[in-house]
Write a structure and sequence with these properties.
Elements lengths: L10 E5 L4 H11 L3 E6 L24 H5 L5 E4 L5 H13 L2 E4 L5 H5 L3 H7 L4 E6 L14 H8 L19 H24 L3 E6 H5 L4 H10 L16 E6 L4 E6 L3 H10 L14 H6 L1 H12 L4 H10 L4 E3 L3 H5 L2 H5 L3 E6 L3 E6 L23 H8 L4 H9 L5
Length: about 400
């Protein structure tokens, strides 16, 4: 059918938390999969405890940090530490095509819902476990967040300013990049099952998945023995490159010159000042050597200009440039508006909230997040009765046993 979503008919149980697991599953949920997001009130998913909160009012159902990574999912709150709660989890695994968890290695095994149990319940199940270091090896017990894996992978060594402490990429970096690889891996496993009938167990190390984004630096060391370290906003190979101050409060515009034609265009854009014709700046190599002086000169030229106007002027003259945007700038960005990037959805607690759409467009396909992230336990009754087929007596027994939180 022309209006059928790509993953319609696919069932997923999402027993993960924080960022990597939920974001991985979100891709499949937004494009049609039926996803049951299993949570508990004790402890809450960490993302439910941090902002931004709607209207600045804290609450586990008022944070868009959680909401952004859990669109198009059904919310079920279950205490898997009690037998009836564990039984509900097992019934979900038997129902699902894909089962994703992101706890420390051994956690789901200790609960009694590891891969061997999952395979017994559902022989063709595709299960994915994601944690910092993978499920095996001497570092497997090391647990933490994407900040830690980003540091161990080497991102912090190469991000920051020379002579200063590592600054690191913004946010828990491996949390942001790992889902891109894990979601594709799950899709490959689904295709394999379609062809063979066989399920899979995917052991996804966030450290290892993120190393793909350090490929040039790793290859440079293996090939040339060269170790890359912090160099601010500058390139190893091209100059000038940097973020330059503009008029107003903390306004900046980035400029990146990678060819001689771009350097000549930048000179013209600046009015061909005499300093640009200094013979010390006549080649890329010499500009790299004199980068400090060039930055000071360019900064003196940009400091009284409007960042947005400067960007447009430079781009029109063939010089790569970009304004340093804030989130408030993105909300008003005409390009994102043109591409219908932000999708307003109605949340049970927060009302109408803008959610990020997808980072691509396909002709004839304009799907985005289908519905807002759930409040805690929002779909308990629907999941238990409609998906699992539990009777009134079974649901009542689960409530009495405090299996639903």
């Amino acid at each position: 059918m022309a209006d059928q979503l790509p993953f319609e008919g696919l069932n997923i149980v999402d027993i993960s938390w924080v960022v990597v697991g939920p974001t991985t599953v979100k891709y499949l949920a937004d494009h049609g999969a039926t996803v049951v997001r299993v949570e508990t009130a004790a402890p809450l998913d960490i993302l439910r405890t941090v902002g931004p909160f709607k209207d600045g009012t804290p609450g586990p159902d008022r944070t868009q940090f959680f909401g952004e990574f859990n669109t198009s999912k059904l919310g079920l709150s279950v205490n898997m530490k009690v037998p009836s709660g564990l039984e509900i989890a097992k019934r979900l695994i038997a129902w699902a095509d894909v089962y994703v968890e992101s706890f420390a290695p051994g956690t789901v095994d200790s609960l009694g819902i590891g891969y061997e149990t999952a395979r017994q319940l559902n022989p063709s199940i595709i299960m994915a476990s994601t944690c910092l270091m993978g499920q095996t090896g001497p570092a497997a017990p090391f647990s933490g967040y994407g900040f830690h894996a980003g540091s161990l992978a080497g991102f912090y060594e190469i991000t920051g300013w020379p002579g200063q402490a590592p600054d690191g990429p913004w946010t828990a970096y491996t949390d942001a990049v790992s889902p891109r690889i894990l979601s594709a891996t799950i899709m490959a496993a689904l295709d394999h099952r379609r062809r063979t009938g066989q399920g899979q167990y995917i052991d996804a190390s966030q450290l290892e998945m993120s190393l793909n984004y350090l490929s040039p630096q790793i290859m440079d060391y293996e090939t040339n023995g060269k170790t890359v370290t912090r160099n601010g906003n500058r390139s190893q190979y091209f100059a000038p490159q940097g973020a330059y101050p503009c008029a107003g409060d903390d306004q900046w515009c980035t400029i990146s010159v990678e060819t001689e034609d771009q350097w000549e265009a930048l000179k013209v854009a600046m009015g061909s000042p005499a300093w640009t014709n200094d013979e010390r700046l006549g080649s890329m190599e010499s500009r790299l050597e004199n980068h400090d002086e060039i930055d000071e000169r360019i900064g003196g030229w940009t400091k009284d200009q409007i960042a947005q106007e400067l960007m447009q002027s430079l781009i029109s003259q063939g010089v790569p440039a970009g304004v340093v945007n804030r989130s408030s700038d993105l909300e008003k960005d005409p390009q994102l508006a043109h591409r219908n990037y932000f999708r307003p959805l109605e949340h049970q607690e927060m009302g109408t909230v803008p959610y990020a759409g997808h980072q691509f467009r396909i002709k004839g396909y304009d799907n985005g997040p289908r519905f807002a992230a759930p409040v805690l336990g929002q779909h308990n009754e629907y999941v238990l009765r409609e998906i699992l087929g539990m009777t009134d007596d079974e649901v009542t027994e689960a409530i009495i046993a405090e299996a639903l939180q």
